[in-house]
Amino acid sequence: MNPKISDFGLAKIFSSNDIEGSTKRVVGTYGYMAPEYASEGIYSIKSDVFSFGVLLLEILSGKRNSGFHQYGDFLNLLGYVSIFYTLA
């Protein structure tokens, strides 16, 4: 079995000469969006890299990303990984 991971969405919005862009309508799953895209609608090729990185963190940690925001003692996946990164 060879699983395939594809379609991170934003890369197909670009034309061949674009490096960065912005949009008034932010769409997608907040846990996988790059922070600058989720908060300001600014996207770039790096936005898809961020989404792929979150997916890799899910695979490596065995935890699911629960969202974009953290509150109280609740940590999303990036907060969880950040704690272990600072301890290493």
Short account of what is shown:
By secondary structure, this protein is mainly alpha-helical.
- What portion of the residues fall into strands of 2 or more residues? 5-15%
Q: What's the number of domains? A: 1
Strand order, largest beta sheet = 1-2
Reported CATH architecture: Orthogonal Bundle
Major beta sheet summary: 2 strands, antiparallel
Multimeric status of the protein: single chain
CATH topology grouping: Transferase(Phosphotransferase), domain 1
The span between the termini is: 34 Å
Cα-atom Rg, whole angstroms? 14 Å
**Average predicted local confidence, pLDDT:** 73
- Tally of helical runs: 3
Number of DSSP strands?
Answer: 2
Q: Give, in order, the helices and strands.
A: EHEHH
CATH superfamily: Transferase(Phosphotransferase) domain 1
Protein name: Protein kinase domain-containing protein
Pfam family, one: Pkinase
GO molecular function: ATP binding; protein serine/threonine kinase activity
Keywords: ATP-binding, Kinase, Nucleotide-binding, Serine/threonine-protein kinase, Transferase
SSE inventory with pairings:
Blueprint: E1 20-22, H1 35-40, E2 42-44, H2 45-61, H3 77-87
Antiparallel strand pairs: 1-2
